[in-house]
Amino acid sequence: MRHYIIGTAGHIDHGKTALIKALTNIDCDTHPEEKKRGITINPGFAYLKQSEDNILAFVDVPGHQKFIHNMIAGSSGVDFVMLVIAADDGIMPQTIEHLKICSLLGIQSGITVINKCDSVSDDYLALCKDEVAHFIKGTFLEHKPLFCVSALKGTGMESLRDYLLQGGFEVLVRERQDFFRMYVDRLFQVAGFGYIATGTALGNEVKVGDPLTILPKKKKVKVRNIQRHGESVPSCMSGSRLALDLTGIKREDIAVGNIICHHEIPPTQRIDAKLTFMDEDNRFTHFEALLFTGTHRCRVGVKWMHTYEWEGKKEVIAQLALDAAWYFTVNDHFILRNTANDQTIAGGFVVDPLPLVHKKTTGTLIDALLPAIKNPMAYMLYKVEQSMVILTASFFSNILQLTEEHIIEMIERSDGLMYIKHGNSYLIFSRKQFGNCFELIAGGIHEHHARHPLSLQGIDREYIQHLIKNKRIYKDHKSNELALNLFIAQMEKEELLVQNNNKWNTYGYEPAITPAQLERIKTVETTILHNGFEGVYESDLLEFKDILDRLAETKTIYRLNNKLFHANKVSDAKALLYKHLTAHTEGIKVTEFRELLNTNRKIAMSYLDILEKEGFIFRDGDFRFLL
Fold first, then answer.
1. pLDDT confidence of residue 446
2. What does DSSP say about strands 267-277 and 623-626: parallel, antiparallel, or unpaired?
């Protein structure tokens, strides 16, 4: 299936409109002012149809310098360009500018057509062909076919028409986008239908009944009818010229230059972009310009960031500040003209539609940004690691115009990205962020065990937060806390960490205990056990703190009120208490329990507190009962 947009380019009065009429039998000059003045003012449209699966739409763009902005608007969405040069005039100013603009807009497919070849001699035509060959050298047209025709007399037209219809050319595959969008280039009212908007379908197809949004008003509408080349169709794919009949629309809801889209695009007043200057030797580090994208125009301030080599040419990375918010997606092309709108300065495409303000351009920033150019995976990695807050699959879906499912599939194929499901959202992180966090935590655990070599337990959350404090994952506090919690849970899931009693160890950690250390542990344990229900004062065994910590962690001993009680004696007390309470359902007082243990009140209270914390008994007034 071939649905391509073919645009014309070239100087005024070189026969672009006549050429399209000769190819399609459709006159693109439909505006009364165009008829009156004999020049194309607005982009005109026609089509050449061989079958339902082979339709070529033509965009006839203005050649007059005063209408250059309409030329840019008409070229947006063009897949293939015919550079038209009159044999009697040769290369003219708008010939040069149009070809450069086409290159700046990312068009890489096309042919050269020398028109009016019947108006000059064979020798003059040969000179013209030599001039044209020299002119297109080094451009995307250099190795493409050249046709000599006469649009008015029909000379050479059959050969040109056959070439176009038989598909003897390839077009650049545009970056994938899963959602339909369209710049409105014409708007008119039809009695009984309302307002009709026309444009070129970008992204994905649109269907009758689809809900759409008109930006910037954010007006919600539905598609009532779609017309493609004068015929109603149930759907229309990317690369087609179409007219949309929209329900519930008023005149103030829509204007030429607006965007109609399936999937809402976030507004921005700042973009990072790659620029190619018309004159490489005349670049400015800071300047103001008019930006043209699609059918929209706005004023921008341009701040140079970095110059580098791209496909053998010097390119510039710059940040553009818009005078009013607009809607860009990654890789959207644009043209910059001077504020007088009489000279094209540069062209380029969006690298990041929602960048941070770069107060300083560091080498680290540029090294991270350059790989993101024309690389969605690298772009997502760049954004995740530069962001102050956690980014979601939904965020990337909006600015890449890809479904969340597609975003997740890309991440699953990536070595540098990961996602964690949180509620109904997919939160996107870099493996580097995750790895750095684990290294900090693992390092903290290692230091903890270096200080406490006999300890089985790891570090608590407070200590982990202390480790992360100076090397935050995100500058935003809430994002930092959430990321840390999710990372710890993911580390447990991936068996990197293990948690016990809200303390974390590296997975599979076991302290290496020497025979001498084991002997000391047994000695301390025996000392506490042999002291019976009375236990031992912890202050008497301070030199064995690491051993006591280990015995407490393994619940071999219990610590309470500066006393140490062996777990065996706690079990003995538990057995005595159980026997008494099963025989005396009225409960037991401290004095009775003291007599059972044959000890003092303070020791008896300690055992009751331990068993209460263990969930074996509960207290009601002066009595204890089995739980």
1. 92
2. unpaired
Q: Residue 62: what pLDDT?
A: 62
Domain spans, the chain:
2-165, 181-261, 269-374, 430-506, 515-626
C-beta of residue 19 within 8 angstroms of C-beta of residue 151: yes
- Listed as ranges, residues in the chain with pLDDT below 70 are 1-3, 27-45, 49-54, 61-77, 167-168, 172, 280-284
CATH 3.40.50.300 is held by the domain 2-165: yes
Identify the CATH number of the domain defined by range 181-261: 2.40.30.10
Taking the alpha carbons at both ends of the chain, their separation in whole angstroms is 77
Residues paired with residue 242 on neighbouring β-strands, in sequence order: 199
Report residue 184 as tokens. Answer: 């409105």
Q: Rounded distance, CA 455 to CA 533, Å?
A: 26
CA gap 37, 278 in Å, rounded:
30
Cα–Cα nearest to 390, from 418, 371, 363, 362:
418
> What would the pLDDT profile of 456-470 be if each residue is shown by its tens digit?
888 999 999 988 887
pTM attached to this predicted model:
0.81
DSSP 122-165: HHHHHHHHHHHHHHHTTSTTTTS-EEE-BTTTTBTHHHHHHHHH
Q: Which two tokens stand for residue 19?
A: 């050429």
Could you say which DSSP state residue 266 is in? -
Alpha-carbon span 212 to 332, nearest angstrom: 20
User: Residue 328 has what pLDDT?
Assistant: 95
Cα 73 to Cα 591: distance, rounded to the nearest angstrom = 95
DSSP assignment of 163-207: HHHTT----PPPPP-SS-EEE--EEEEETTTEEEEEEE-BSS-EE
Residue keyed to tokens 């619940």:
555
With beta carbons less than 8 A apart as the criterion, state whether 98 and 72 touch.
no
514 C-beta neighbours (distance < 10 Å), count:
9
26 and 17 Cβ atoms separated by less than 8 Å: no
Second-level CATH architecture of 515-626: Orthogonal Bundle (1.10)
Q: Which has the closest alpha carbon to 339: 270, 291, 282? A: 291
C-alpha triplet 122, 123, 128: angle, nearest 5°: 95
Alpha helices in 354-476 (DSSP H): 363-369, 376-386, 393-400, 404-412, 431-451, 461-469
What is the per-residue pLDDT for 518?
A: 85
**Residue 608 DSSP code:** H
For residue 52, the SS3 value is coil
